[in-house]
Amino acid sequence: MPCFALILAVISPRLAIIGVWIFTDDLSRAYDSWFLPFIGFFLLPWTTLAYAVLWGVGTNGVTGFEWFLVILAFLADLGSYAGTARGREWGD
Length: 92
Known about the structure:
Helices cover 80% and strands 0% of the residues. By secondary structure, it is an all-alpha fold.
């Protein structure tokens, strides 16, 4: 299952979030309510997915090097928005 989730995450982080939500309880363990994952699904899918998966990997919390991975996911989300803005600026 982890390899399949990784492949889904590479293809589409939103699809991977749906898979994690259906097949595991990582989202409900990492987040106290449904609101943050719902907003994260639309705004920061890589960050939402990374935080939820890393929450359950070790200590039921994100600590140490895991925060570095969450920050990388956040930068990937920001990079996707910057790439979209640049594409609109330059045209086709």
